[in-house]
Design a protein that fits this description.
With 281 residues, this protein is an alpha+beta fold. The protein is built from seven helices and eight strands, in the order ααααβααβββββββα. 52% of the residues lie in helices and 18% in strands. It starts with a helix and ends in a 12-residue tail after the last helix.
């Protein structure tokens, strides 16, 4: 961020937010724990949070009026890691809507679409059921503590939505083949475009154990991968918080790995279009 008047204001807002938001979290924890907090303290805390949020909205609108793109304006106010985490949560919730509406993401005009969520469905449905049971049990146990009951209920319900969102994001974001590239995805946190001319080999290979190694990307579904792709040079597969991760070996899973391997191999070896007859003099 540049040290200009436009840059100093967002930096000051970040500093204030770093102080106010943790203090708000401490107040919330105290309330859940049953600690008596004077009403004046609660009022001041809520006013500070509201003031920070309103100020950030005002600064955001000013940055937009000055011609700054929305993505860049948000980056001025919100740390990249926070923005990425928020974006991930929004993609999960959007995935739920797409899942219900049966509208997959990014498949328009694709030459090949390869779903990969089938083998994790039973596990995530079971996990979601356990979370629902835990939600009901905690609601019963905390019935005599209304503040704690409300906070835990919100967290429990969000956990159920989060688990279902993980599956929904995987189900609505399949691997795709389009535009001379294989788009490799997993849930809402991995989306890597692999140009076909960088693929040295693609093969079926079922693996159920994966060691973490530099230069490798393992996208296991149900603890397994079924396709291995080797590259001639690395592509960047950014981590969740944006850290670069160059990879030359990608292992992924598909519901029909044979179809994925066949289509990628066919696209890699397709003959070049004929240049046509030479012009006559």
């Amino acid at each position: 961020m540049t040290d200009t008047p436009r840059g100093r204001v967002p930096r000051l807002l970040r500093s204030v937010a770093y102080a106010v938001l943790p203090a708000e979290l401490v107040l919330l924890v105290c309330l859940v724990a049953g600690v008596r907090i004077p009403g004046a303290v609660l009022l001041v805390g809520e006013l500070c949070v509201a003031a920070v949020l309103v100020t950030e909205v005002v600064v955001l609108l000013r940055l937009l009026r000055r011609g700054l793109p929305l993505r860049d304006a948000v980056a001025e106010l919100v740390p990249e890691a926070v923005a990425r985490l928020a974006g991930h949560e929004l993609r999960l919730m959007a995935g739920l809507g797409r899942w219900v509406a049966r509208r997959p993401h990014g498949v328009a005009g694709a030459d090949g679409v390869f779903p990969h969520a089938r083998d994790q469905a039973a596990l995530l449905y079971g996990f979601a059921f356990v979370c629902v049971v835990e939600t009901v049990g905690m609601s019963y146990l905390l019935a005599d503590w209304p503040v704690a009951h409300a906070v835990v209920l919100v967290l429990d319900v969000y956990t159920v939505l989060f688990v279902l969102g993980l599956h929904a994001a995987s189900a609505t974001r399949p691997h795709t083949l389009a535009g001379g590239a294989l788009r490799v995805r997993q849930a809402a946190h991995v989306d890597v475009r692999v140009p076909l001319d960088l693929i040295a080999s693609v093969r079926r290979e079922s693996l159920f154990s994966h060691e973490k190694r530099d230069g490798e990307l393992n996208l296991a579904v149900g603890s397994q991968t079924s396709v291995t792709i080797e590259l001639t040079e690395p592509v960047d597969a950014p981590r969740l918080l944006g850290a670069p991760r160059p990879v030359r070996l990608i292992r992924l899973h598909a519901d029909d790995p044979g179809a994925l391997v066949r289509e990628v191999t066919r696209a890699r070896t397709a003959p070049s279009p004929s240049p046509g007859p030479l012009p006559t003099a």
